[in-house]
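User: Please predict structures.

Assistant: First:
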Amino acid sequence: MRVRPPAELRVLRDLFETCDPAPQRLVEAAYAAASRKWSGGGSTALRLVGDSADAPARTRRAGMCDARVLTFAMPGRMLEMDLIPTTEGLFRAVGLVLGRPGHSAPAGDVVLRHATGESVGALDERGGFAVDDVPRGPLSVVFRQERSTPAVADWLVC
């Protein structure tokens, strides 16, 4: 059963839609992100366990890279990824998927889902990957290991 919002909220929504509407591309990106959020049936969780954006601000020297480091955990694996700014509004994602000591490097790929689609980076023989031209904005990481269920991370904004 769908509950209708109170009259006050409907009036407020109409006021915002009339006086300060959201850009259509932003609305479309939000709906695309929401549909991807709920379409991961059968996948395992890829939990965000570390984000350098949450660290206290540090003093930086001129010329230092402003990469954002994201660390994800899943059963038996860790995925660490650097988001390195390249040009205005774009990142290069470089990372590594680590397994338990003594196990071989994983085979598969890392998919970065974003508002304009998906970007895929295949894992090399050591578990490393690189993805160019990742757009700034909503981002979800999916680890697709061969012969296994994909591990999907929740959406975040970069």
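Second:
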Amino acid sequence: MLITGLLFLFLFAKIIMQLGSSAIFNSQSIITDIIFKKISYLNYSGLVMFLVNLLLCYVFIDSKTIYSIGIALILLILTIGWITIIKTHLKFLTSYFFYFILYLCALEIAPLIIIVNTLKV
């Protein structure tokens, strides 16, 4: 329960920081659209994770193939999501390219690295 609460708090804080930075750069509508699309693709991948978990628990118990297909589908959904977001807002992202790279490193990649390092304990 503590881990779920901390994860929820982290995601909530991340969205608040994204909305705060959009207010600073005067681009609320674009950033709100990007956040909505990103959360939508994360929800789609969550549905795939749920279905893969159901299949692994009740139908194909300990199947490496289903596990691999699930990971491939999740990565495909997330990749398509990011490519779609970048293609849709390419003009906006090129005008703020430095801030986009800073955002990717600080709010997308760094938390994943911290989580992976914490779980390796």
